[in-house]
Amino acid sequence: MLSEVLLVSAPGKVILHGEHAVVHGKVALAVSLNLRTFLRLQPHSNGKVDLSLPNIGIKRAWDVARLQSLDTSFLEQGDVTTPTSEQVEKLKEVAGLPDDCAVTERLAVLAFLYLYLSICRKQRWTKEDLELINKWAFQGERMIHGNPSGVDNAVSTWGGALRYHQGKISSLKRSPALLILLTNTKVPRNTRALVAGVRNRLLKFPEIVAPLLTSIDAISLECERVLGEMGEAPAPEQYLVLEELIDMNQHHLNALGVGHASLDQLCQVTRARGLHSKLTGAGGGGCGITLLKPGLEQPEVEATKQALTSCGFDCLETSIGAPGVSIHSATSLDSRVQQALDGL
Ligand code: PMV
């Protein structure tokens, strides 16, 4: 233990269709992105070990001996899903986090240590290990928005393209490698409040809002069907269908009350260039996705990104369907990732 570098990455994700509706028992389609977050645990010759989580700005160092003092007791654990209160106390002691450490950092470091001691020392994860990671990611989601559907943590754990329905997850077979723009409007939003807002609207206007949710469900199902068809025999008309589905869902999400002026702006800027966008996730700001159809020239993509950047947004071009959470060998990372891990 602790003699080798541990490198782990997880993909970003977006919900293609079904956000909010999924909370009310409808189908959602979620996909992983080729944009990854990394974590490294690196031992040094001075007897220290460094934890680096560059995407959330966390760096910690511990004595190897200190971590090793926990090793055997954690190894003997049967059920690793829930730490006992004694274990949590021990983890806190070993983590030695300062009093002024932010709650999110404290929880991230403790969750990391617990998972590390439970499963990370393996070279390869089993299905059960991945299920454990998924459960922990779900708990993280709960901290952020109270009553999450579970779709976000599932897609980051398993990767690929997933259909999520009432807690049941299945992979989409043969979905195409779509290219998208992921645009962050940088408008902060509160997922918990947005989810509660949709619930209130549903209670206030059941006859109006329930059909919207049913329609979003049908959009997800139609998208799933088209993606399956594209995986087998891609044709340009299928992109037109995907674009129409994007537009209809965006209007429904506005009707649910989770739109925002920044997202309208995003849709208008891309629409002016013949591209179709919708919000992804909770809405109320946050991120939107734009479908890049095949045949689009790179200068046009760059001009669209530039136009979105000029609105004050961050815009990334990426593809969907990346692998889920993974262990890497220290030599397999590209130099930019190495630099980010070193540079904190
Ligand atoms: O904003 P995000 O990426 O956390 O997604 C929220 C998606 C919702 O459907 C609104 C809530 C959920 O838990 O599924």
From TrEMBL:
GO biological process: cholesterol biosynthetic process; isopentenyl diphosphate biosynthetic process, mevalonate pathway
UniProt keyword Lipid biosynthesis present: yes
Cellular component annotations (GO), alphabetically ordered: peroxisome
InterPro entries to which the protein is assigned, alphabetical: GHMP_kinase_C_dom (IPR013750), GHMP_kinase_C_sf (IPR036554), Mev_gal_kin (IPR006205), Ribosomal_Su5_D2-typ_SF (IPR020568), Ribsml_uS5_D2-typ_fold_subgr (IPR014721)
Pathway annotation from the record: Isoprenoid biosynthesis; isopentenyl diphosphate biosynthesis via mevalonate pathway; isopentenyl diphosphate from (R)-mevalonate: step 1/3
Residue ranges occupied by any GHMP kinase C-terminal domain in the UniProt entry: 244-297
Highest taxon listed in the record's lineage: Eukaryota
Record's catalysed reaction(s): (R)-mevalonate + ATP = (R)-5-phosphomevalonate + ADP + H(+)
Oligomeric and partner information: Homodimer.
Family the entry assigns: Belongs to the GHMP kinase family. Mevalonate kinase subfamily.
Name of this protein: Mevalonate kinase
Organism: Homo sapiens
